[in-house]
Automatic annotation (TrEMBL):
Protein name per UniProt: Cadherin domain-containing protein
Every Cadherin domain range: 69-177, 178-280, 281-383
Major localisation: membrane
InterPro entries, per database record: Cadherin-like_dom, Cadherin-like_sf, Cadherin_CS, Cadherin_N, Protocadherin/Cadherin-CA
Any single biological process term in GO: homophilic cell adhesion via plasma membrane adhesion molecules
Amino acid sequence: LQLLILCICVADDVYGQVRYSIPEEMVKGSFVGNIAQDLGLDIILDNPMELHRIDMEILDINDHAPVFNKKDIFFEISESVHSGAIFSLDTAKDPDVGTNSLQTYRLHPADHFNVKILSRLDGTKYVEMVLQTTLDREKQEEHKLVLTAYDGGNPQKSGSISINILVLDVNDNGPIFLQTVYKASILENSAKGTRVLQVSAVDADKGTNGEVTYSFSRGSLSDLFDINTHTGEITVGGLIDFESTKQYEINVEAKDRGGFTNSSKVIIDIIDVNDNAPVITLMSFSSPVPEDSIPGTVIAMLNIKDLDSGKNGHLKCFIRPDSPFQIKQSSSNFYILTTDHVLDREKISEYNITITAVDEGSPPYSTNKTVTLKLSDVNDNAP
């Protein structure tokens, strides 16, 4: 959804809003709407300045099929693995949205396995393969399956990946995590190598059959976090930015030497730090202005925002108190600069106005922006 800001000078002090919906891949130059007519604007004058909001909704069409990153997946599974064992599968990607996006998965054949479709906190779907009936290596040593992802478009599109399973002999116990869900919190910008938490799984088997190794499940954030394959300790491995992602969800897999696996979920909350200064954007500026402009005349419109959250993103905006101008907030993140007193070009013909924005972080960040306003002469003095 695109947001357009339209500044229009009209006679009446009335603010409006209009919304349009257009399909993606619309031909350049196609008619969308008559803004002036839809807003009911009749006469254009010099003042005051108005802010109108125009929402532009892009409607998706089903022009992409679900796609897997690989052509096939290989598993080694012991014949003694019990029913209900879970195996992480690659997820398909579909850039379409709504009903046109990825909706479901199907597995064929389904005589030993079926699929379990789950959703992450952000609504994206991922899939796990669940063993329904025990395997027997002596009857069938290899299993070849096909996992197909379907979207909800009309006509429906799909993509597939092959799953090859080699059945291993003996070893009758798999790893079990001590917790099904692990949670931790870390500061954004934490240095690489910072400890996040440690996962742990136990295996009832003895010797090498009871040794467990840890890894991130397929598709997890291996570029942002690292895991020690022997201890299960998770550490920071990349740049963590709160403004980019506030929470991460990772699936961790424990595997023994016989091929038994189990998975657990790790949820990592990112704590914001004040690492962004306010940004001041000058949207419109009128210079020169007549020296006889009445108090309250709009000189400039500004957009002032801070990417941080909470107090770190709360802003105070001001100018010098002895200035014949004032700045005030007109709506969220938008401010107007107006005259506050009668001006006199014969006394002062030009003003340098500095706008300062300060956040409430600790320590606080601030930003200054200076605009130069010139006054135009009017015939207000006799010889």
